[in-house]
Amino acid sequence: MENVGVKDNYMLIQRIKSIGCFAVCVLLAAVCLVPLWIMICNATHDGFHLSVNPINFIPGGDFRVNFRNISEGEMAQFPDFNVWTGYMNSLIIAGCSTVLTVFFSALTSYGLTVYNFKVRDTAYTIILAVMMIPVQVTSTGFVQFMVGTLGLANSYIPLILPAIAAPAVVFYMRQYMKSSFPLDIVEAARIDGCGEFRTFISIAIPMCKPAIAVQAIFAFVANWNNYYTQNMIILSDTKRYTMPIMIQNVLGQDKHPDAGAQYAAVALSIIPIVIIYLCLSKFIVGGVALGGVKE
Amino acid sequence: MASTAQSRIKSISYAKYGYMFIAPFFIVYAFFQIWPLINTFILSFFGNGDAAFGAEAQEFMALDNYKTLLFGGDDRRSNALHDTFVQSFINTVILWVGNFIPQIALSLLLAVWFTDSKLHIPGQGAFKVIMYLPNIITAVSVAALFMRFISNSQTSAANIILQNMGNEAIKFENDPAWSRGIVMFIQTWMWFGNTMIMMMSGILGINPSLFEAANIDGASSGQVLGKITLPLLKPMVVYTLITSMIGGLQMFDIPFLYHTAAGDIKDHLRTVAVFIYEQFRVGNNVHSPQYGVAGAASIMLFFVTAILGIFVFRMNRDQDEARKKAERKALVKEYKKQQKLAKKGGLE
Hints:
The complex is a heterodimer of chains A (295) and B (348). By secondary structure, chain A is mostly helical.
């Protein structure tokens, strides 16, 4: 009898502990979600309502008005804001960069894994060493070279082409290929008369799909969110403004801020990426620990 | 025999493909990263302004830019530049410490809870997805959102609430404590989920039989945490510390964007990265690009980053070595003691 009592007591303590932990987790999850929920609700109330009730937990019906007020009307927040142009430009940059990053990283790591050549180890060491160099350190020379010397202000070339060289992605893909890409397959393909490049395209890439998918998601998100590089290259051409730059301009409007329109603009910039995230959250959360860049 | 022949064939006839496959990476990297890095280095020795933008021609100044930033100069402008730079470095350290401590504490706590087999926390998957969510959102949008909530503007949510209650509106951005606190909060909000997932993967990498053995021996959760999880998690924590420190030195987005009037950076929020950015940004309406100063600051940032990385690695390794040395000494002492005892015993 006594033993049972002890056991019950222990179970009770464990139960109380896990309820306490659960409560803390719920609280933290709420801290993560509530700002976003308020944003969505506020985006659907007009500026006048928000000037009295700045925090809303129930959606209203003024999203259309707010959407129009971002770029048109008397209190236009930013005349050049066009959500479709913003999406389009961000999509072009993020999409092209992602394709280049995963393709060339796979190519580089394939070259480093499959072939045996003199400078292979040196090349790999260099990639490891440069992985930690922060962008901020090279950006002075980058801007002076791109904008000053080559005259590429407002061009997408300095934003897209550098994606070919992504040391962290190469590092991750090489690890993956080392562990789960059998070299015998390459031999077999050679015996069957398959060219080297074709082996890479039609055998290596399909076999590395999981790694490529994870890295593609991260590369896309990183490029979609990149404000630092985009803002130092895209200087004046409003037609080429990407989503982050547009948001920054809308919010920079201090004279007659229409809170509803501003919330709507922020919501429009956040929602696509949140939807993508929720659809792919399994891969993203699983991939974070495998290699990401922190701030 | 066949395999050596095979490998010889492989290494002889296919090596050129290896070069071909890795060439694009290195060409592009050299063009877009290595040359800019060297260019930054070169620029840091030259005068400010660029002929292409109608400024005065560049002149060689040796270490003058570094001298100005580190020690100030004769005129007021150089002194102001020096003060701003020193302040930006202090700001960076304050903001980094203020976001790293809560971030690592929260993420360690959550990671320990989520991996504890005795605490069955329901809905773990959902929690992980939700807590990582802020990390995926564009920093510009996060800053914009929090500025609508709490900022200098009379129409920010916090100020409207204050005014509704009959109080004065507060200029939150102008107050160092408020604005730094808010930036730290946003940084923690964005990054704790990421750190938590890193920590969890570290804990899951620990041999589960250690936890089992501890459980069987009746260790409390505190003992398990202090004697198993934390010591074995040390490499992971150090890795997080280094990456976070290097990331913290580059902190740019939130401190730069948390300003109602864009580009008008407050002195208590200017980090080193923001300082550099302000100096080189073309089209900045304050002045023409100051490549020399920006380059010098970048190079210093580069060296600080490198030194910090090496320092933390060495600290960790030295601690390990010191402990091993102490253990070895203790063993030798014990051995000598026993020998003495044996001798005494022999004498008797």
